[in-house]
Amino acid sequence: MELYRSNATTIANNISGNGSVSILENGTSTSKGAAVTFTGTNTYTGRTYLGNHTTLQLGNGGTTGSLASDSYIGIAYGATLKLNRSDDVTLANYIYNNGSHGVGHDSGRWQNNVIQAGTGTTTLSNTSSDWYGTATINDGTLKVTGKIGNGANYIINNGKSLIFDSSSNQDFNNLSGTGTFTKSGTGTLTLNDSRNGTYTGATTIDQDH
Question: Which of 41, 88, 132, 135 could form an SS bridge with 150, CB 3.0 to 4.6 Å?
Fold first, then answer.
């Protein structure tokens, strides 16, 4: 199934089957395309493709809007996965780079983006995710029990909560913002470029972790 709309669209239907769903390119590097929002309980198991400069939003501030965990999520150049639920939800999907130049190229306009926008807690539990860009926390809590993605990724915590509670060793490149940061879990977390970070929030490191 292919979705190509120039205006913001909410799909409340429950999409099922074993085919893929693609959001086709509907924006540019300087003008993001209008968001497609899923508020249904989707059970299709094919891949979910976010085309260049598109936005897929899961949820619209409520307690619905999900994908089957079997659906791999591919994020292309400049595309955004936005998570907007008010409850606690686990996103177990494998999130991967389907095209990205990372943070440093052209002011980040061609990177992968993951945004925590809901007031609830979103837990990223997949241990293999390798998307490449920036995670931004604008509301609620982003909790990582799996992997945050590529080791060159940036995290912007805009006054909210970031929790790493993973048993795997991993790294990311840069942390900025004013929100709280908690490190628990047995895995080693490495911040590659702390010199250029502008993080000023409170940091908690659980004992023995």
Answer: 132
- For residues 69 and 138, what is the distance between their CA atoms, to the nearest angstrom? 24
HSE on the CB side for 77, CA within 13 Å? 14
Length of the chain: 209
Q: Give all strands (DSSP E) within 35-132, no chain letters.
A: 35-38, 48-50, 55-58, 73-75, 80-83, 89-91, 95-97, 112-116, 121-124
Domain ranges of the chain: 2-205
Q: Give the angle subtended at the CA of 175 by the CAs of 118 and 51, to the nearest 5°.
A: 55
Structure tokens at 133: 């860009």
Q: pTM of the prediction? A: 0.96
Q: How many CB atoms lie within 10 A of CB 19?
A: 12
